[in-house]
Amino acid sequence: PLGHHCREQHAAPLLTRRPQGVLADFAPSVPPLVPALVVQCVTEVETRGLAEVGAAAAGLPGVPWGCRASRGSAVLLSPFSPHPQTGLYRVPGAEQLVREWKQRLLRAGEAPPALGAVADVHVLCGVLKDFLRGLQEPLVTFSLHAAFLQAAGEGRARRADIPDEAACSAALCHVVTKLPPANRDTLAFLMLHLLR
């Protein structure tokens, strides 16, 4: 599966490219095209344990509300979270630590830092969110944002062109195929993460 392959591919070095580019600038040269920073943060968050709850949104930037799994979005919780009803990605990490760890990961080269040294899982979540937020082009690209919202059924009461859930799923799949490869692979990787 995509998640397993990404972890194998990024077991060692993180890419060291200038921040603020597009997602492809940080992706490896061979598929799946998921940036190492994303893989490492997600892997560490999942290593610490997650609990799925209800249908509240997890709050990752660059993913429109309409891009929820049909089962509902998962709220990701730390098993020892001081905010048991708050999604893991909704609780901010300490800003200074988020910036420091993001820079460490982006500059890591052949020896990536051990993310187990980050005491607060919310810092890791903050690094991931800050990385996605800082891209010049979001995960769901500017040019496809409206198409994603339409495909997801935003304003369905006004639109008769997407009549039911099956049509909505087909429309979303079609729009996903139009994403740049690194965006598509990263979106798939993150959606699998959010479903766990």
UniProtKB/TrEMBL annotation:
BP-aspect Gene Ontology terms: mitotic cytokinesis; mitotic spindle midzone assembly; Rho protein signal transduction
**Domain (Rho-GAP) ranges:** 21-196
GO CC term (a single one) = nucleus
**InterPro entries assigned:** Rho_GTPase_activation_prot, RhoGAP_dom
Under Gene Ontology molecular function, one entry of this record is: GTPase activator activity
Q: What is this protein called?
A: Rho-GAP domain-containing protein
